[in-house]
Predict the structure.
Amino acid sequence: MKDGVIADFTATQLMLKNIIGKVGKRYNIGRPRVVVGVPSGITEVEERAVEEAVMQAGAREVYLIEEPMAAAIGASLDVGEPSGNIIVDIGGGTTEVAVISLGGIVVSHSLRVAGDELDEDIVNYIKRELNLAIGATTAEQVKIQLGCAMPLMTEMSMEIRGRDLTTGLPRNVTVTSTQIEEALKESISKIVEIVKLTLEKTPPELAADIMEKGIVLAGGGALIKNLDKLISQETDMPVYVADEPLDCVVRGAGKVLEDIERLGRVLVNARNKKYR
Ligand SMILES: Nc1ncnc2c1ncn2[C@@H]1O[C@H](COP(=O)(O)OP(=O)(O)OP(=O)(O)O)[C@@H](O)[C@H]1O
Ligand SMILES: [Mg+2]
């Protein structure tokens, strides 16, 4: 997987086969029904490729759901109601913003700026400002501990270890939340812009609903400190972080499987067309 899409078809298929095999043994089920989260706006050719890969990996039935739809269901939004909901899913590879009403996605935008890009921003900042090389894992830890979209009430700091770019030797430095806020600023403003753009493209009636109900953040990026506050300030709307934002997509997909008679209509595509 790279940037949220399949980069190596054979490896992906092996992985799926392995997972389906493990699940089958552990829970004593033969060929399972599988719900797959896909990016919104996937083409029909891509849909078929995903279906094919999952069926060949041993599924009995495959259902596709757009990830923002799954995230919204996982965040307990009532996606079937006629009023408007908006979900912002900030993952590793992509940020997806979707307005949902009557079980369908009305407007959506996707941006290839999300958690991985923020890690890279931190690597670059520390290289530039502190002359220190750090790896992606350290950068991710820094992001999780200090990453913020607006200054924190009390500045936080942590010590990290890297390689001095001049001497080539290991060196420890202390980084602060203020520095990391600076490092993330540009990418975070891109995320805020895509939310604003989506709101601008939202039909007015639905925008009025959203104004009242607020914007819901999901995905690991939702945990960046004060990101909810910044988006709220920039859009003049209430913003909420979903419970356990990292698990929204998988929980949403699970809810659909458990209640396919009622929720099946949100699926992009189903082998068994009666749910559409
Ligand atoms: N507490 C946290 N603060 C900030 N970022 C976090 C936190 N916890 C996890 N993340 C980041 O969230 C990202 C993973 O989120 P998530 O699991 O939603 O992505 P994904 O679904 O795998 O990716 P995509 O949706 O792009 O395919 C990683 O970049 C990770 O570093
Ligand atoms: Mg995701």
Q: What stands out?
A: Residues 42 and 258 are 24 Å apart (CA to CA). The pocket of adenosine-5'-triphosphate (ligand 1) is lined by residues 4, 91-94, 114-116, 140, 143-144, 147, 219-221, 223-224, 246 (CB under 6 Å).
